[in-house]
Amino acid sequence: MWCPDISNGYFNVARHNKKAMVFKVSDDGATLDCELEHDADVCDIFFCHHGKFLLIGQENDTYRVWDFATRTKLKDIKGVSMKVMMQTNYQGSFAPDNHALAVMGDEKKVYVYNTADLLTPDAVEPLVLETDTKSCSITWSPDSDKMALGAWYETIVFNVASKERIGKVQISAWDNVGSDVTNPKWINNDTIVGKWDKSVRVIKLD
Predict the structure, then answer these.
(1) Between residues 29 and 203, the one the model is more confident about
(2) How far apart are CA 192 and CA 160, in angstroms?
(3) Per-residue DSSP letters for the chain?
(4) Which one, 29, 39, 108, 203, has the greatest CB density within 10 A?
(5) Residue 58 and residue 149: Cα distance in Å, rounded?
(6) What pLDDT digit, counting tens, does each position of 37-84 carry?
(7) pLDDT tens per residue across span 72-122
(8) Other CB atoms within 10 A of residue 128 CB
(9) Phi, psi of 93, rounded to the nearest 5 degrees
(10) Buried b (16+ CB within 10 A) or exposed e, 44-77
């Protein structure tokens, strides 16, 4: 996973057992910058959009949040790792404006954390969005107000702040033969596009 902030150089993070290996990459090759230690095997790695936060999913169903600039651990938060969500492309997802982070939870839930809370040492309780089926993809609207949770046979759209369901549409995050993940995508703040059966659907939200 590449860090989107290139002001201090090009960095790539890879997983190896219970470590996240940070490499600095240049025209001369890659050199090991540091190793970030974890309590269980690493299975997810992703950055927020400005590159300041690094989120590492562990096989013990927690995510560890790092300040990437200082390589400092901020806190552990609860969530289900990619290892548990076998055969999906699920990863956690930062909002485009970086104000919030969404990760998969247990029992048909998605946990949404305010990124400001990630900087405090105190334990925080997330906002919880409840779905009808286990979701396997999370995508935010461009304005960071809405979220589409894609499942096997449907996509549920939420207003995140109010937890209100805006709608349920027949766009799948999994194709009919179970061999390829096809996430719903936002065209703008009111329109999503995705796959259904052998067609592509464009859905305008009311």
Answers:
(1) 29
(2) 16
(3) -B-S--TT-EEEEEEETTEEEEEEEETTEEEEEEEEE-SS-EEEEEE-TTSSEEEEEETTSEEEEEETTTTEEEEEEE---TTTSTTS----EE-TTSSEEEEE-SSSEEEEEEGGGGGSSS--PPEEEE-SS---EEEE-TTSSEEEEE-SS-EEEEETTTTEEEEEE--BSS-TTSS-----EEEETTEEEEEETTEEEEEE--
(4) 203
(5) 22
(6) 999 888 888 888 888 888 888 888 788 889 998 999 998 887 765 444
(7) 999 888 776 544 443 344 456 889 999 998 888 777 888 899 988 888 878
(8) 11
(9) -145, 120
(10) bbbbbeebbbbbbbbbebbbbbbebeeeeebbbb
Single-letter amino acid, residue 127: L
Residue written as token pair 């589409």: 148
- Residue with tokens 């956690």, as numbered in its chain: 92
